[in-house]
Amino acid sequence: MEITIKIFRYNPEKDKRGHHEVYKVEGNENDRVLDILENIKGNHDGALSFRRSCAHGVCGSCGMRINGRNHLACKTLVRDIGAEITVEPLLGLKIVKDLIVDMDPFFENYKEMMPYFINDSPLPENGRERLQSPEDRARFDDTTKCILCACCTTSCPSYWANGNYYGPAAIVAAHRFIFDSRDEAASERLQILAETDGTARCHTAYNCTEACPREIQITKAIGEVKLAQVTGTLK
Ligand code: SF4
């Protein structure tokens, strides 16, 4: 079958602004958008630039806008979206070249959440582990699945309006540790998210939840963080 793909192109060394280029390539309905991009880069235009790594929905590198919605190119099949495809960079982050955006602000927000285990108390006498019940582990299971693809944050209208907003992905990272019964820094993270650019900027648009390739219930997680901020409890 013939696939028509319109790709956003921008080379800051040559272009004043971005434009779209149309390619017609042979493919089949089981091709992924990433396969088509690889085909074009390998056989038609080696200058085409996009991020990719694992190609199996794990690394989070190939997040992009496909037919107007954020997806991973490696998980998006022609049979699901049709043979007329438009591919553009994620919104809300500076375009570096073609489909590559500057992820630095995204990762800066992530780092602000202290996305690592904090517990300075002595280890239990009996050994080397801080035990946790299955129920306590389940409390934050969903938010452990994040692969930092940025599809959620860059689909959020509040983030588009104000890039200082920490954004859904950062709050997901915070949630993962705030609700971990073994961690001791929940109150610090909740305090950070109580700042002007924290959870107050979430207006429950649900775009993040729809965009997440890991099907994390992001809006629910943000709601749980908001509730913890109001009630002061983690239950
Ligand atoms: Fe990507 Fe989902 Fe993580 Fe957001 S929460 S960065 S959409 S995996």
Describe the model:
- It is a single chain.
- With 235 residues, this protein is an alpha+beta fold.
- The chain folds into two domains: 100 residues, Ubiquitin-like (UB roll) (Roll); 128 residues, Fumarate Reductase Iron-sulfur Protein, Chain B, domain 2.
- 31% of the residues lie in helices and 14% in strands.
- The chain is built from nine helices and seven strands, in the order ββαββαβββααααααα.
- A five-stranded mixed β-sheet has the order 2-1-5-3-4, covered by helices on one side. A two-stranded antiparallel sheet has the order 6-7.
- α3 runs parallel beside α6, α6 packs antiparallel against α7 and α6 packs across α9.
- It is elongated.
- The model has no long low-confidence stretch (mean pLDDT 96).
- Bound molecules: iron/sulfur cluster.
- Iron/sulfur cluster binds next to α6.
Topology:
Elements: E1 2-9, E2 19-26, H1 33-43, E3 63-66, E4 69-72, H2 78-81, E5 84-88, E6 95-97, E7 100-101, H3 104-112, H4 134-138, H5 157-161, H6 168-178, H7 186-193, H8 207-211, H9 218-231
Parallel strand pairs: 1-5
Antiparallel strand pairs: 1-2, 3-4, 3-5, 6-7
Helix pairs in contact: 3-6, 6-7, 6-9
This protein binds iron/sulfur cluster (SF4).
- Fraction of residues in H or I helices: 25-40%
**Spatial ordering of strands, largest sheet:** 2-1-5-3-4
Distance between the termini: 54 Å
Please count the beta strands (DSSP E, at least 2 residues each): 7
In N-to-C order, the SSE pattern is: EEHEEHEEEHHHHHHH
CATH topology of the largest domain: Fumarate Reductase Iron-sulfur Protein, Chain B, domain 2
Largest sheet: 5 strands, mixed
CATH architecture of the largest domain: Orthogonal Bundle
Number of domains: 2
Mean pLDDT over the residues: 96
Number of helical segments with 4 or more residues: 9
In terms of per-residue confidence, which ranges show pLDDT below 50 for 5 or more consecutive residues? Answer: none
Structural class: alpha+beta
CATH superfamily of the largest domain: Alpha-helical ferredoxin
Binned strand content: 5-15%
Q: Whole-number radius of gyration?
A: 20 Å
**Top CATH class of the largest domain:** Mainly Alpha
Heterogens: iron/sulfur cluster
